[in-house]
């Protein structure tokens, strides 16, 4: 599976890092690898389903990171506008 090959998403024991602990770039990179493996084909159904489920979780986490970043920018712009008045 992609996560097994991706050292940056493993802890020191070789276990897969929980998605909730991954930063945006790590999630995005693993998601790209999951998509590549699924598009390549040749996987059995169970492996494909596990990869697809992991990909869905990674995509959701990426969206959470982006929503948080968007909110921080919005808050910063609002605070900047308030200090100018």
UniProtKB/TrEMBL annotation:
Coiled-coil intervals, chain numbering: none
Alphabetized NCBIfam families for the sequence: PRK00977.1-3, xseB
Similarity comment: Belongs to the XseB family.
Recorded GO MF terms: exodeoxyribonuclease VII activity
Keyword annotations of the record: Cytoplasm, Exonuclease, Hydrolase, Nuclease
GO cellular component: cytosol; exodeoxyribonuclease VII complex
Gene Ontology BP, a term: DNA catabolic process
Principal subcellular localization: cytoplasm
Protein's job: Bidirectionally degrades single-stranded DNA into large acid-insoluble oligonucleotides, which are then degraded further into small acid-soluble oligonucleotides.
Catalytic activity annotation: Exonucleolytic cleavage in either 5'- to 3'- or 3'- to 5'-direction to yield nucleoside 5'-phosphates
EC number: 3.1.11.6
Protein's name in the database: Exodeoxyribonuclease 7 small subunit
Subunit structure: Heterooligomer composed of large and small subunits.
Gene name as annotated: xseB
UniProt keyword Cytoplasm, yes or no: yes
Localization annotation: Cytoplasm
Pfam families, per database record: Exonuc_VII_S
InterPro entries: Exonuc_VII_S (IPR003761), Exonuc_VII_ssu_sf (IPR037004)
